[in-house]
Write a structure and sequence with these properties.
A four-stranded mixed beta sheet has the order 2-1-3-4. It is α+β, with helices and mostly antiparallel strands. Helices cover 58% and strands 8% of the residues. The radius of gyration is 17 Å and the shape is globular. Helix 4 runs parallel beside helix 7.
Amino acid sequence: MTLKFYYDLMSQPCRALYIFLKMTGIPYEAKEVALRKLEHMTDEFNQVNPFRKVPVIDDSGFVLTESVAILTYLCTKHKKYDWYPMELKERTRVDEYNHWQHLNLRLSGSTLFRTKIIIPRITGKPPSSKELEKSQKKWEESTDHLENIWLTRSPYLAGNHITISDLLGVCEMMQPISAGYNYDTEKFPRVQDWMERVKKETQPHFDQAHVVSMRLKEKVLQDEKA
């Protein structure tokens, strides 16, 4: 049976997994779940994932609901060891970043996006400038960790070549960017170079994964000019 992939490309880990599947050529059946339409809250989707989140995979009845677990499972099953190395220390470097990102880059970027985009849509009220400033500061701190810790020891987040860590990282960086933010390229030159490398190596799939995000960015910037 073909792998079923449940996703919405407004989700950062969904984009990372989408790019991975395209890059590796692992066959899958696309199952789009429109978060904006609350399709993840339906009884039907609850049967797939009681946590009501994406991404999810169903591999012939074996269901996984966490993005990092999905990526490592697929790498191991399909022997994609360039993305998730077999050698213990190299693999552990990938695991190290993947564990770090949850409460750092992922949390800070998601919070900034939620504060700027999602909460105002739910409440019908403009975002709090105080909360935006606080969230942006946290995101910049995480970006600084990429610049001055992760990317000082290797050109990619977990070594000398692209891995699943880079897919997760670059998609998390893109979330606040889709909300109209950007990082200081002079302050974070390693981050800039790394992002450009990852984008180049994953084309055309990177751009395909970010069509909706970039459309949102254009709308946000237009609204801010109005």
